[in-house]
Structures are given as structure tokens and as C-alpha cells.
Design a protein that fits this description.
This protein is an alpha+beta fold. 43% of the residues lie in helices and 23% in strands. The strands form four sheets. The protein has a seven-stranded antiparallel beta sheet with strand order 5-6-7-13-12-9-8, sandwiched between helices. Strands 3-4-14 form a three-stranded antiparallel beta sheet, with no helix packed on it. Strands 1-2 form a two-stranded antiparallel ribbon. A hairpin with a 2-residue loop joins strand 1 and strand 2. About 2% of the residues have low confidence.
Amino acid sequence: MGKFDKIFNSEDKSAATLTLEESVAAVALVAAETNSPDTDADILESILWESEIFAEYSEDDMSAMFQKLAGIIAQDGLGALFNTAWALIPDELVLDTFAITTAMFVADGEVSDKHKPFFQEFQKALGVEDEESEEIIEDVIAAYSEESEGEESDLDGPLYVSPEGNFSVSIPVDEQRGGKIDEEDGSVAFSDDFGVLLKIDYFLIADAAEAEIESAGEEVYLKSFLDNFISQAILDKVPNSKLLHAEYLEDEEAYFAVLDLPAGATISGEKNSGPLTRIDAYRGLMAFIADDFCYTVSCQRIYEEGNELGSLESEVEGIMNNIFAFIETIEFSEAA
């Protein structure tokens, strides 16, 4: 039995009604949630807009559609959404649906080996022939390469500069998607209405801390610091939260941890037509030192009842990669 059989061979159905556009988007969304739960929603949204199928969709239309599909997943599960959507997709749109899904997993001009087992089962579920699949993947990679050549760097976008002048970062949220920036003394958080949370906490290392680092070592200092930060800022404030994983990353000279926060996400959702309640989330945090400042960079991975989560190992790896990707956009410097 394949890894993804429980989704693509599920017999579950949803009573929800879907339009043709919603059905195409639903199949792609199920693929993203099944194969790579941390796929950025912005990536799928931008891919859908490039398709003629969604040419008439506005920002509000797209937002409402994703909220509807997320509600179906929460209530009926991924398998039920896939079966309901797939039954509504006509033969002439099967290859378009496969191409849209393929585009989500193209990076650096190729489909990585880790995604290939998924594509084999997804291709089988859609009834796409090997030759058709190879041709579509080649076309998507070619289009990706052409687009990358003409793209400007993301860092050319709007920047956030810390009040102390110790770092700047490309703003990772869009106001049209409810993006906002929350500043406090020693921290800045970027979030939106779709569950994105990227936060930077920082402080200037005092002489006493420098002496502690010199005597005990950076690993011991960062572990002690992040353990205290987690205890005071999260575990003491979010009921039933717990530490899932922690490790020191020797090559990166950083201490990394992942926590489970039941009802601890930054956004709320509706369960079984009840009142809005906070969604569950994993929270990843990474502490490190740069230019006399100690930083903690964090992100969240939301999940709802009915979501198919990956193994703890894969979830931890995904969260770690998201934090590293965000850190790559930060330019550190000495305080002004």
C-alpha cells in the first residue's frame, strides 16, 4: 500500500457542494497538505491565478474559496474533499489540474527526489499516463526557469528596519491578505489572516552574558536561554502546550525547539458550526547570536482536526526549513 493511499483511495465523501474552480483548487490543496503540509498558501494562490481557470477570481474570491476548502478539510478530512472535488473535474481539465499541482513542487528548476513518490501516486490517482506526466513536468520546469530569469529578488520589496538598526528584513506578509506588523520593545511579529506567523525577538548581550558565554560556551548559554524563554513566554501561558523536540545545531551554532500549542495559533476557526476558537499550531523557535545580539526567530505551522499531519520528524524538518528560509531574508548588522 502506498504512503498516500489513505487519501487517494479513501471512500469518504463530503456533502459540500463545489464549483468547477473550487474542485480544481481542492485537488491541488489536498496534494499540498498530503505531500508537503508546510507549502506556503501564497504559492498555491499565485499558481491558481496564472491559470485561465481562475482568470475572473478576485482577491476576495480566492480568500473565500480557501476558507471554504479549509472548513471542509476540518469537518470531513482530506480524502473526502479529494473524492468530492475529483468527481466534478471533467476529462479536459485533468491535465491542467495535474500541471497546477506540479507547479507547487518545482524548486530550483527541478522536482526534487523527495516529491517523486508522491507524484507517482498522484499521477495514478488522476489517471495520467507516464508520457503525459513527463511532458507536463518538463513544461512546468521550463516555465519556472523562464520566470526565474526575469524575476527580481524578493529583497527588492518593502523592508522592515528594527528601531535599533541591528537588522532589516523583507516584510513577508501582504496587507491584502490581512498582513500586519506588531512591534514591541525587542520584538517584531509578522502575521496574516491565513496563519502565517514569523517573529523576531532580540536583545543586546550584556557584559554578564558575555562572561557566561565565554565560561560555559555558546551551546550551554543558548539552551539555557531558549528553555527559559519557552517556559515563560509559552508553556506558562498556553494551556496544555508541550515541548516536542529540541536540539543544538552545531553547524549553525543555534538552538532549535518545536512545541505543540493546542488552541495556540494566531488565527481562529469554526468547528462543527460552533463559535470561533483558536486553531491548534506547532511553534518552532531558533535561538542564535549575531553581532552582539541574541535572537530568537520563530514560526508557526497551523493544523486543524482532520488534517493529515506528517511524522514528527517530517514536521520538525519542515518547520526548521521555514525558519532557515526566513533567516536568509534577514540582514544583520551592529546596532546604530
